[in-house]
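Instructor's aside before we start: the two examples that follow are unrelated to each other. I chose them only because their records fit on one page, so don't look for a connection. First example below.
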Amino acid sequence: MPLQLTPAQPGDFPALIACQRTSYLDPPNTLYTLFCPPHTRPTVAESLAEATERQLQWHESDPTSTWLKVTDTDTKDEEYGGEEKIVGGACWHVYEKAPGEIEAEKEGGGEEMKCYWWPEEGRQRELADQVMGQMMRTRAERMKEP
């Protein structure tokens, strides 16, 4: 099973996010469920499609975002176009300025991120927004340099 690390392309995202989901659901990763809640769409396929579209949009709209993928060059993934099977991946952000400085420059003055992908009403959305807010505030406090 030779592995190869390469930059991910937009067409890789369906297989990449499916791999991410499989990796983070067993054993469960609570932070993953904040970004990809399991019960916000009627089916797993719809939840996966929404998460894929959202993460691709985030990537394409963020100049600091770099997605890398790891493929098994001996295995073809028939479910995702017959290309080499994606067996891992990661999103990295490379900053030329401090993340808090970048957020402050954005339209809206770096207002707190809300978990808009969660259902709008209910305690779970409120808790998701609180956790996201705490995480982003801590990130801004601690990431003072690029």
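Example two begins here.
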Amino acid sequence: MSRSVRTLFDSAEKLRKSLEYPLQSDSSIFQENLKVAINTYEECRQLADQISLFSHNESLDDISSADLRYLLIDYHLAQLILKSIASDRRDVLPRAREQFESFLELLDIYGILSKGDRKLHEQYLDAPSSFSTISTSNAALRRESKIARFTEEKDLKKKLEHLDQNPAALQNDDALLREIHLTNVKLCTHLTFQSLESISQEIHILALAPPTPIARTLGPDDRMLNGQTMKPYSNRLDNPLSQLVAGGKGGPILSKDGKPLQPFTLLDSRQRLQQRVFKSGHNLPTMTIDEYLEEEKRRGGIIEGGGEQSELRPEPDEDNLDKADEETMKARDWDDFTESNPKGSGNTLNRG
């Protein structure tokens, strides 16, 4: 039994709204439900094309208020495609961009685009790869344009919430129902241009990325190198100790009969471990403080002198006349120097 456009659209909307709950987009359940939603929207769009739900010869007034919501089939389909995960992101972006273009083209045919949106649509058609919602490079003008578009989006959401407050009134008020659908279409148009700008930027970034290397499956011939099988992968950079001792050769040390197959060294590690069983957990001192000071003194690490002993001067020997004459001459020389160089004479502060 074939389903109608209304039934398919309602099923697709239910699936789409279920994906808005906080689920991980990379989970298998999310991707499975996403795939079902995309297939349902595509089936709904194919059926709408078969029955010619929208025609190039019609105007906006020819579309009934109940059928206005079907204008968003391509938009919802594009948004869901952007959430899908593929091995190559470059396969997903053109597919979503194509659905956004179909959505804008349908709105342009019925004259739903506003003057500003029509101008953005023309800019996109002229240069899709470098499209931007703000064409100016002036920082102040870009900031004002962003604020204006954000305010417009906020007003559309606020108006849509206000119109949806009384669902029962929509059944008897065709004008209100029509206004709600057109407001929702205008909001989706606003978000479409943002998505197209993001897609263009992402495609540009992916074009600069290096190509993904192709994984090659090793065959039987590739697994043999010089008659030896390839070693299993390991994060270890150095070879095991047994291979280092054996000059890079691996294998067991002893044969099944107990015959040595490669040289090895017997260590007393068992005795050393046994001695450390009752050892303290910290390093014990190996010498006393006096022994340490004697060793430092022998190495010249201790400077003697200073303190009160440095103030004691030996009394002069009166019988040593040479020493007395030397001290007298030293005192006279100092007196002559102080007379020739009075205190402060050297500090002239650049005054000569």
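The chain has a mean pLDDT of 80.
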